[in-house]
């Protein structure tokens, strides 16, 4: 019995072109679960409700956090901290509801988004979660030691934040790929509250870190700013800092250890909340998302680093290891010498010298990678993918932090001049940062949008020509099966070699470039993440804009720059595996 034309046309969209057994395809289509029939406006409307909820929560929380940072005496009842505690408590209730009850309901998650929650991202998130939980332990010890002069809401905060952080980590580790199709409004609203809590906790961490670093700088410089305008601009801040220092850690060894651990582990908490917020956003976008029955995860995601080892990646790993070793030495020397007046100038020289040597090499590698992409001419990946769209958005948005600082330094150099060798190095560092960030973004974004199958474009042309000439489809189906099996086994280059008769040098080149860039970005992430910020203590922007405005600009741009390096490592790891 021949199916109707509509069924045949639908079957041909899921099966291979020119299939001679439309009845089997039709049967297969009937057995697959179909997405819920909904009007086109329904998902957008439900997303709009939760989106407006999250927007209002974030704006209210940001206003409270900013008020607590700029005028702490005005909010006498610790409203920012109480608001964060309430938000984390509601998020905890939703996570418990989803994990203990909703997940057990039939049909709540009919399929997975295999692009979400990749292995490198999940591993890094769990690492940050472990350090953040350790930070909570140090915070508890420090705040209990200082409980006489700390408000009760701040002392209570770690006891709520620790279970919120732990439960969210488990949710993202076990269920980040879920495409939830039941209780959509409650699910979207709960996820948006978690995302709002992550953003506000990150903002709160940034503002608290800003106050801490400002106090340290003023103590180190003896309140000796570079010009009179800077001193006038920082008078109010100095007064607030002097009041804050009245509550100091006691001379006991335990309190000093807790405070030191609190200071060292602080950056990990900021990075965790940014990264967790991104994964929660993908989970929110996947609520109610239909996935076609023919959807399969890309074979590139089944490959492991064993393929890279078998491919003989050597030069990128060796050169990246040298960059890593030199960076560790520079980091240690800078931390030791910058506090000594005689060696302070030398500390700045080795910092700028290291970056002026590494960033040109990274720029050349990115440029070479872009040229290899153009020579390879691989097909682009089609279809809407929330994870891939978010990756690109985060790369561009996070790069704005360092780009903005570079342009501000450039304006300051044009206005007041470089003023010496350190000024020249600072300007060169800013210009090279611009070049390296732009080229790396182009290389990563082009790589993320490439089809994982090197033969996809040629295979698509072969299938379309066979369909046009009405030939039998058994041969292309067999070839497609062979190609997929070779990809799953990690032998895609061998297939390319058999079809093209050429050595797959493009894969080796991309893997070498990615290996070098991964290790370089790791080192460029470690240096600022652990407190090396020469722009605070030396820089053209500080001379031109004044201490307080420049301090705010740097402290907003630096966390974004740190997050950019971390996110670049995850994206480059994916390019390395899928090359």
Describe the model.
By secondary structure, this protein is mainly alpha-helical. It has 2 domains: 44-229 and 244-285, no CATH class; 306-377 and 399-452 and 507-577, no CATH class. It is built from 22 helices and 2 strands. Strands 1-2 form a two-stranded antiparallel ribbon. Residues 1-43, 222-246, 293-304 and 463-503 have low confidence and may be disordered.
Keywords:
579 residues, mainly alpha, two-stranded antiparallel sheet, 2 strands, 75% helix
General shape: globular
Give the count of helical stretches.
Answer: 22
Distance between the termini: 46 Å
Mean pLDDT: 74
Radius of gyration: 27 Å
Largest sheet, strands/sense/barrel: 2 strands, antiparallel
Query: What structural class should be given to the helix and strand makeup?
Result: mainly alpha
Number of strands: 2
Q: In sequence order, what are the helices and strands, one letter per element?
A: HHHHEHHEHHHHHHHHHHHHHHHH
Poorly predicted regions: 1-43, 222-246, 293-304, 463-503
The share of residues in extended strands comes to: under 5%
Please state how the strands of the largest beta sheet are arranged side by side: 1-2
Helix content: over 70%
The tally of structural domains comes to 2
